[in-house]
Write a structure and sequence with these properties.
Blueprint lengths: L2 E2 L8 E2 L2 E2 L11 E7 L4 H12 L8 E7 L7 H10 L4 E5 L1 H10 L16 E2 L6 H13 L5 E6 L4 H16 L3 E6 L3 H13 L4 E4 L3 H5 L1 H10 L4 E3 L2 H5 L4 E5 L1 H16 L9 E2 L4 E6 H6 L6 H6 L2 E3 L1
Parallel strand pairs: 4-5, 4-6, 7-13, 8-9, 8-10, 10-11, 11-12, 14-15
Antiparallel strand pairs: 1-3, 2-6, 12-14
């Protein structure tokens, strides 16, 4: 059976469904595959919204979960497992997992920039001003910052997409920019050492599963280097990072089931628009700011969705 796809999530989230649209069948038990880094409150939000739409696990829907835990070498096998189950939909987040799913079946096309055919849903491909917003937030938090480092993993295609925005924003603010590359935990140590040598004033960490898996190490290195750092995800700030600014994933996962429902009822993904995130959240850790000897401007604190004290 050919499959159709549905896009959403971190870089991308894909939902695959039969290409020949099937009308909703009474008594049918739908099967959904899930390929994500791990279980999380976002996944529970997804399940809750499905239930509101009448999809109850074990009754009219079965969900097959596969957690890759940031271990990219496991992705081909996990993707193949899900494809072999012949699900009606597959939910997958992130560029690497999406590519693994694409490699597992030639009948699941994945198009990020130009949705159509078998693609629709939500994407965390945020507008161009998002990169500028991240740089501006760091500048507001540290007004005297003249040198900014950006931590990337070169193999992550999304990082190359966002970098031009970051470079342009830093140039506009007359900030000197240093690109730090890390592919392994050991290279994280080297990257922070390079930032110290270049006397970086602030650091921006782009989102990546490797960085998520080694969140504690990165937060500790930022503290040791006394680098005010902006991350993408709230979890980094809860772990001791200074600030995070990101699309509100919980909102996106709650909206995904409406697309699931439409596709299972026969809607063509090509007829459903790919949506951009509309809600963002800024989290600030005042305890970390104090440890860095940093005073967060009151105006920035007032803009925060959550302040950790």
């Amino acid at each position: 059976m050919e499959r159709r796809a549905f896009l959403t999530g971190t870089g991308s989230v894909l939902l695959a469904a039969p290409l020949a649209a099937e009308a909703e069948q009474a008594g049918k038990v739908w099967r959904i595959g899930v390929l994500l880094a791990s279980d999380s409150p976002n996944v529970e939000a997804f399940r809750q919204e499905l239930r509101k739409l009448g999809y109850v696990e074990g009754r009219n829907i079965l969900i097959e979960y596969r957690w890759h835990e940031g271990k990219y070498d496991r992705l081909p096998a996990l993707a193949a497992e899900l494809v072999n189950l012949k699900p009606d939909l597959i939910l997958v987040a992130g560029p690497q997992p999406t590519l693994a799913l694409k490699a597992a079946t030639t009948t699941v096309p994945i198009v990020l920039a130009h949705p159509g055919g078998n693609l629709t849903g939500f994407a965390t491909l945020v507008p161009e001003e998002f990169g500028a917003k991240q740089v501006q937030l760091l500048r507001v938090a540290v007004p005297a910052a003249a040198r900014m480092s950006v931590l990337i993993r070169p193999e992550n295609p999304m990082h190359r997409t966002y970098l031009p925005q970051t470079v342009a924003a830093a140039k506009k603010l007359s900030m000197r920019l240093q690109i730090l590359e890390a592919r392994t935990p050991t290279e994280l140590d080297s990257a922070f050492a390079a930032a110290t040598r270049e006397h970086a004033d602030v650091l921006l960490v782009l989102a990546d599963n490797l960085f998520n898996a080694h969140r504690t190490q990165i937060v500790a290195l930022a503290a040791k280097s006394r680098l005010p750092t902006l991350y993408l995800w709230k979890e980094d700030v809860l772990a001791g990072g200074l600030m995070s600014y990101a699309p509100l994933l919980s909102d996106m996962f709650r909206r995904v089931p409406t697309y699931v429902d439409k596709i299972l009822k026969g809607a063509k993904p090509a007829d459903l628009p790919v949506e951009q995130p509309t809600k963002f959240e800024l989290i600030i850790n005042l305890k970390t700011a104090k440890a860095l000897g940093l005073t967060i401007p009151p105006a920035l604190l007032a803009r925060a969705d959550q302040v950790i004290e």
